[in-house]
C-alpha cells in the first residue's frame, strides 16, 4: 500500500484506509465532510513547488481540495 502523499500527479486512486487518530479531530471531521474517507476516488492534480511541496491539490469527484502532506500521509490508497 502507498499513502496519498506519495501518489504521483495525475494518478487516480481509491482511499482504502485512513488513520484518523493521526489527525486533529476538527481537521478529520472537515476532511470527512469533504468526502475524503474510505472508498473515495481521488487524483493528485498538483503539488506545491516550495519547501515540503505543500499543499497537495486533490480532485475528489468534481471538486478540487487542497490538502496538507501531513493529512495525505494518514490516508492509504490503491492506484486505479
From TrEMBL:
Source domain of life: Bacteria
SUPFAM superfamilies: C-terminal domain of transcriptional repressors (SSF50037)
UniProt-listed InterPro entries: Fe-transptr_FeoA-like, FeoA_core_dom, Transcriptional_repressor_C
Domain Ferrous iron transporter FeoA-like: from-to ranges: 2-79
Keywords: Iron
Coiled coil: none
Transmembrane intervals: none
Pfam family, one: FeoA
A GO term for molecular function: transition metal ion binding
Protein name per UniProt: Ferrous iron transporter FeoA-like domain-containing protein
Record organism: Novosphingobium arvoryzae
